[in-house]
Amino acid sequence: VFEKISLHVDVNGVKHNLLVEPRVTLLDLLREELGLTGTKKGCDRGQCGACTVHVNGVRVNSCLSLAVTNDGKKITTIEGLANGEDLHPMQEAFIKHDGFQCGYCTSGQIMSAVALIKEGHANSELEIREFMSGNICRCGAYPNIVNAIQEVKNGGQPS
Ligand code: FES
Ligand code: FES
What we know:
By secondary structure, this protein is of the alpha+beta class. The chain folds into two domains: 5-80, Ubiquitin-like (UB roll); 89-153, [2Fe-2S]-binding domain (DNA polymerase, domain 1). Helix content is 31%, strand content 16%. The chain is built from five helices and five strands; from the N terminus they run ββαβββαααα. The chain has helices spanning 26-33, 89-96, 106-119, 125-131, 142-153, and strands spanning 5-11, 14-20, 52-55, 58-61, 74-76. It has a five-stranded mixed β-sheet with strand order 2-1-5-3-4, covered by helices on one side. A hairpin with a 2-residue loop joins strand 1 (5-11) and strand 2. The longest helix is centred in the last third of the chain and has 14 residues, at 106-119. The mean pLDDT is 96. One FE2/S2 (inorganic) cluster binds next to loops. It comes from Mucilaginibacter polytrichastri. GO terms for molecular function: 2 iron, 2 sulfur cluster binding; metal ion binding; oxidoreductase activity, acting on the aldehyde or oxo group of donors. Residues 3-81 form the 2Fe-2S ferredoxin-type domain. Keywords: 2Fe-2S, Iron, Iron-sulfur, Metal-binding, Oxidoreductase.
């Protein structure tokens, strides 16, 4: 039994004051304590990107981040990306371009894709593929994912 540590986080605009065991990852906190199961657990060891969320606006593999190291931080998950009923443009683009098959990798792909554009790393197909390479898709939806990202990057124009 581990001593629990107090943790204050803002998740999708909701403030949480929690007591958390130091061994709990941010991924498990989101899924198991907060019920935000949109963030997926693929490998649980930093290899697949399915667990990607934004921490203070920066993309992070939540399986590699201990929850207690996020004290005072602002977390955004796939559930927090839409604006009420309106999907985020990246979500719309993934639907339009069939950027998924089974969908298991999709939350992570979308969170990574949104961050990628903000980072300024979506300037060519090659660059997109390179900077999305931490997000694995076993279904091989990569060409459609690239198309979706390029459309959002180009302000809604198909590439
Ligand atoms: Fe985190 Fe695979 S579950 S990288
Ligand atoms: Fe199935 Fe990517 S859509 S793993």
